[in-house]
Amino acid sequence: MSKQFDVVVIGGGPGGYIAAIRAAQLGLSTACIEAESYADPKGQVRLGGTCLNVGCIPSKALLQSSELFEQANHSFVMHGISTGKVAMDVATMVKRKDNIVEQLTSGIKGLFKKNKVTLLPGHGKFVGLENERWRVDVNGEVVEATHVVVATGSQARHLPGIPVDNKVICDNVGALSFDSVPKRLGVIGAGVIGLELGSVWKRLGAEVTILEAVPDFLAAADAAVAKEAWKTFTQKQGLNIQLGVKITAVEHGKKGVRISYESGDESKVLECDRLIVSVGRMPNSDNFGAAEVGLAINESGFVVVDAHCRTNLPNVWAVGDVVPGPMLAHKGMEEGIMVAECIAGQKGHVNYAAIPWVIYTHPEIAWVGKTEQQLKNEGVEYRAGQIPFLANGRALGQGDTTGFIKMLACAKTDRILGVHIIGNNASELIAEAVTAMEFSASAEDIARICHAHPTLSETMHEAALAVDKRPLHF
Ligand code: FAD
Ligand code: NAI
Known about the structure:
With 474 residues, this protein is of the alpha/beta class. Helices cover 32% and strands 26% of the residues. It is globular and about 70 Å long.
């Protein structure tokens, strides 16, 4: 007889492993199928998906190492610290990153054991529905489940005519494991990966040129943040970012990569030693038998779901990068929790209006809620308070005063509609704004909260005061 479960999750990334753990916590017999996509050197399946293996975690490890290198080279001196010549051993940096990945991915296996989630290594594929139970094939063995959660994630989008070998021409997989600092690095796409990984290799000494198709820089961010980021990245940090270009050919020869592109009326050529292609990601919706069971997929390849991540099929749910919405690990995790709670008969919920975005460049960029442009386009009357970190004692002490916090609040109700940060530790500071928005707080609520002194969070306090035109330190 086939193995029987209440819930089978296909995919062990953040959406899937969290759905599985939460379902098991709620007393449901749960299995998680994970393919060999990110197997360790011994061929053992690794959990954690893109995020832990070739995404969030490894990229942040490299960002940290390269930031320390940058500081040792350029910032220590202002504190009176002289280091002499600072050297970077890329192999050690990459090994450290690999160790963190190993620690976290094996940690999830431990969490599965602790919570009694059965790990089924192999490729999951729908077989069909029999007696109201879904049959799913895992490498030739069929398991049965009342509920199936699809959490198959996404993969890097590649461009026609640009063959990715993950040695010289790389997507996120190869770009996180370079064995040396390329002298000249080309990047196609000035999105989140292009900026984060471009920053890593720039700090380590590469000459970095980023070619972006769209004429606007960081179009999804608040325009004031995007403007400040542009100034800092291009003028202070020397990232060469070219906007509004059209790639016409990419040739990979013995001497590296030659990219031909059009910029305005001009035809240009960029020669580089390595190339990162970071032009977005595609959902993995065609590898688990969706068509065979009639699972609805939209024209962009995403699994169609309602606000509770229910698909068109009974008791089939989908979460994370494979469904529409921002491709962010924490969004997928929230959906995983919601689905597990709904399956268990609880009232699961995700507040899509309060999902934070973070770009881990230096300065960091973080936001939640609406941008000023969006509010204008929607005709919403708002008040804005913006305070630079230059006016913050902690930022001065840290020697890092770039950026600001901008708060947008409804002109009528004072309810916070959006918070936009560019600056040191924006990734941590945004949590206060997310909490505030989750609880429908007003700018005045933040203005009346005692913020520890001296901290960067005082800038949030001041931004809230500035909404009412009464900042105290600016
Ligand atoms: P995935 O993590 O892609 O996991 C899906 C899993 O399903 C994979 O392990 C895959 O092997 C498995 N699978 C697929 N098909 C099958 C099948 N048929 N059978 C069995 N298993 C299958 N997000 C953030 O929030 N913060 C960040 O800082 C961040 N940094 C990133 C940096 C990079 C370089 C990249 C590429 C992404 C980053 N992301 C970040 C995005 C984040 O990694 C994804 O949003 C997140 O991993 C999506 O989780 P998921 O569970 O939906 O899918
Ligand atoms: P992205 O969507 O952030 O950026 C892709 C960029 O490539 C866009 O600016 C787009 O205009 C450009 N582009 C597309 N086609 C092009 C072409 N032919 N030529 C030149 N430019 C082109 O995608 P990216 O950077 O690949 O990252 C994928 C996703 O991974 C992100 O959208 C995000 O969801 C997730 N991610 C999240 C991170 C975080 O939360 N800090 C970090 C890294 C990735």
